[in-house]
C-alpha cells in the first residue's frame, strides 16, 4: 500500500502534546481503528524508538502512522498488529535516512535519547538488552535498512515475509540482510549481560567515588579500558570524542569539576532498562549517566547533557516487545 504524505518535523511540540496528538483522534473508544492503534501504541513506539534512538522522532512516527492507519480499509487487513508495525517501520525508515545525514553535522558524539523506564523493563532481559544504551549505539553502526531488519527480526520476532513487505525487499534479500546485520552486531555487542543488582553495585561505587572526589576509588571501579561518551549537542560542554582508559576518564570527571568549582551529586535512576544516575552540579540537574558493567567494573559510561534529549527522564516511558 502506498502511504503518501510529507514528514512532519514537530520538534517544537512538548512531550504531552506529542502523546495526545498521537492518539487524540476525535473518535469514540469503540472505533475499531482507534482501538487497534491504542492497543498496540506502546509496541509501535518501541519499534520506532529502537530504529531511531529518539523519542521525539518516535512520537512523530506514531503520528504519521496514525494518519495513514485511519485511511486503511480494515476489512482488507488480516493482521492489524502486523499492518501497523509495517506502517511504523516505513515511516521510521524515512526518518532514519534523513537523521543519518543530520547526525553527520552533530557537534561531538551522538547518544540515543535516554528514557526513564519502569523496574519491570530491567526484569525483562530481552527488552532491557534491546533498548540499552550499549545496544542502541551498536545499532547506530548499521545502515538504515539493516537496522530495520535487525530490530524487527531479533527484537520483535517478525517473520521474513512481513519484514520484506515493510522494507520493500524480497524475503531472500531480507534473510541476507538479517544475517549480515546479526554478524555485525554480534561482533560489537556486550558479551555478558550482568544482573541489575551487579550493575547497581558498580554504579553505587562509581557514585560514591565521584561525589567524594576519590581518585583511587574511581580507578578501582573503572575497568582499565573503560570508554566514556558524552553528548552535549553543542549546547553543553562535552568531550568532542570518546575518552578511553580509567586514568583519563577519572581525570575528565574529577579534574573538570574541580576546575569549574562544581559540587557533584548523583541520584540513582533507571534509563533504557538499566541502572543509571541523574547527575547534579551544585544542585542543578545536569544530565543522565548510563553505564555498561562487566565483572563488577564499569566498562562504558554514556553521559547525556544535551537538554533537548532530557525531556523523557522525569516520567516513565512504557516499552514492550509484544
Overall 3D form: elongated
For the termini, the CA-CA separation is 24 Å
The total count of helices amounts to: 14
State the low-pLDDT regions, or none: 1-29
Tally of DSSP β-strands: 6
How much of the sequence lies in strands comes to: 5-15%
Query: Strand arrangement, largest sheet?
Result: 2-1-6-5-4-3
| Helix and strand pattern | HHHHHHHHHHHHHEEHEEEE
The percent of residues in helical segments reads 40-55%
Largest sheet: 6 strands, mixed
Round the Cα radius of gyration to an integer and report it: 20 Å
Structural class by sheet pairing and helices: alpha+beta
Q: What value does the average pLDDT take?
A: 87
